[in-house]
C-alpha cells in the first residue's frame, strides 16, 4: 500500500470515536510532557528526576537541534496531532485523521532515534523523555491497528464483491 | 460555523492554554522557591542594602534581631558604615532567624513590614537598640507597632504587611541561602562573599575592610 493510497483510500467504516479519544488523550499527555521540558529548557532548570540521567540527557548536545530544543519540536508535533484530530472530530473529513495517523509513524521513528541515543550514545535516561517515547509508541501502535483493520475490511469487501459478481 | 464547531475549537484552545499556563505557572512558582537562597557572593538590588550598590566592598550580615551578639555588633557596624563611607562600603543585611528565639520571626516581620514603607533600616536600628524591651515579650507585635508609629509609618499598612506570605518567603529565602553557605549561627559576616570569623574589635573589622578595598596602583 503506497502513501497516496493510504491517504486517499476511504475508511470502510468510520473509525471508532473511542480510538480518536484515545489518540487525543495520549497526544495531550505527550504535549504536556514536551511542553514541560521546553519550559524547563528555557528557564535553565533541570526537572526533578528519580533517575540520575535527566541532567545528562537534557544538557547533552543532542537536546538541541540547530538552536531549537528537541522538547519544543516534540511539543509542536503533539500540538499538530491534536489540531488534526480535533479537526477530524469537527469537520469529519478523513484526510485529517489520515495525516495524523501517518505522522505518528514519523513521531515514532524520531522517538526510536532518541531512545537509541539515550541508550547507546549518552548512556543515560531521562524519565520525561521516556514518557514521550511511550506516548509516541502508543500513538504509533494505535495508528497501525487502525490501518490494518481497515485493510482487512477492504480485502474482505473485495472478496465479497468478487463473490457477488 | 455552527455552535457545536465553535464549542469544539474553543474548548480545544482552552484546554491547550490551561496545560501550557498551568505548567508555566507551576514552574515559575517552584523556580522562585529554588532561586531563594542567594549565595553570600551574590547581592541583588532587592536585598536590604545600605551604601552605594556599586561600592567595592560588601559587608554582608546574616543576622537575627533577637540574637544578643548581633545587637552587640550593631553599633560596631554603624560606626564602620559611618567611618568607611557609603561609596566604599555597602552593608547588606539578610535574615537568619534562629529557631531558639521565640520573637525572631515577629521581629523579622517588623523589619519587612517597615521595608514596605521604605523604612527597613530605621526599624532595624530600633529592633537592635531596644532588643531587651521586646525579646521576652509575649506580644512583641504590639511593641513593634509602637516602633512603627514612632517611625511615622502608617499603622494600618504596617499591620497589613506584617507576616504576609511575601515577607515569610523573603525571610525564608535569606535563611536558606545562608544555610547553603554554611551559616549556622548569628551574626555571620561575609566580606565580598568570603566568611570572616573571630573579629573581636572594631579595629580588626576596619582593618579587614580596608584590606578588602581594591588598591589602585600606579
Could you explain the architecture of this structure?
The complex is a heterodimer of chains A (165) and B (218). Chain A is 77% helix and 2% strand. Chain A is mostly helical. In chain A, strand 1 and strand 2 form a beta hairpin. Chain A starts with a helix and ends with a helix. The model of chain A has no long low-confidence stretch (mean pLDDT 81). Chain B is an alpha+beta fold and 218 residues long. Chain B contains nine helices and five strands. Chain B has helices at 3-35, 68-84, 104-115, 120-129, 131-134, 140-150, 155-160, 165-180, 202-212; strands at residues 48-50, 57-63, 89-95, 188-191, 194-196. Chain B has a five-stranded mixed β-sheet. In chain B, helix 2 (68-84) crosses helix 9 (202-212) and helix 3 (104-115) packs parallel to helix 6 (140-150). Chain B is globular and about 85 Å long. At the A-B interface, helix 2 and helix 4 of A face helix 1 of B.
What brief labels describe this structure?
heterodimer, A: 165 residues, two-stranded antiparallel sheet, 6 helices, 2 strands, 77% helix, B: 218 residues, alpha+beta, 9 helices, 5 strands
Write the layout of secondary structure elements.
The complex is a heterodimer of chains A (165) and B (218).
Chain A: H1 3-8, H2 17-42, H3 53-58, E1 64-65, E2 68-69, H4 70-91, H5 94-122, H6 127-164
Antiparallel strand pairs in A: 1-2
Helix pairs in contact in A: 2-4, 2-6, 4-5, 5-6
Chain B: H1 3-35, E1 48-50, E2 57-63, H2 68-84, E3 89-95, H3 104-115, H4 120-129, H5 131-134, H6 140-150, H7 155-160, H8 165-180, E4 188-191, E5 194-196, H9 202-212
Parallel strand pairs in B: 2-3
Antiparallel strand pairs in B: 1-3, 2-4, 4-5
Helix pairs in contact in B: 2-9, 3-4, 3-6
